[in-house]
Amino acid sequence: MTAPEAESLRVQPGPSRRSARRAQAPVLAVVALGGALGATARYALTLWWPTPSGGFPWATFVTNVVGCAVIGVFMVIITDVWAAHRLVRPFFGTGVLGGFTTFSTYAVDIQRLADSGHPAKGLAYLAATLCAALAAVWLGSAAARRVLTGRQS
After folding, report:
1. pLDDT per residue over 45-85, tens digit each?
2. Positions of E strands within the chain
3. Per-domain boundaries in the chain
4. What pLDDT is stored for residue 90 in this prediction?
5. DSSP string covering 5-42, please?
6. Residues in contact with 29: Cβ distance below 8 Å, sequence separation at least 6, in sequence order
7. Distances from the Cα of 94 to the Cαs of 105, 132, 140, 144, in angstroms?
8. Is the terminal CB of the chain with fewer CB neighbours within 10 Å at N or C?
């Protein structure tokens, strides 16, 4: 196959591909803005409530549980109650709450506890966060559904 033949077979981005990318630019922008806000709030909480060496990481625990409860409430609001603008969910759900909750720090905290001679505390933190986060999403959505729509989950 000659170079001109190979070039003619290569897929060129057409107008529909460019317009699809252009349509995603606002989504990317609001996710970035929301993520910056959420991460800043989380960082401020860790400065206000530092974890001593070998101590239970309460700031991260509370951040993740509160963030999960808010996600439960938010999802009910935007699916059952309010027809939100198309950028609300990426901004608040993915951006703000994604930046606020921090399951990567949760994993690092578990590793630090284990490495510093507190493996039982690390295991307790692992289980407590998982159970509390799942319960928070369920309770948040159930409470929001009951209060806002009058339905039970």
Report:
1. 999 999 998 999 999 999 999 999 999 999 999 988 888 89
2. none
3. 13-149
4. 95
5. HHHHHSPPP-HHHHHHHHHHHHHHHHHHHHHHHHHHHH
6. none
7. 17, 20, 17, 19
8. N
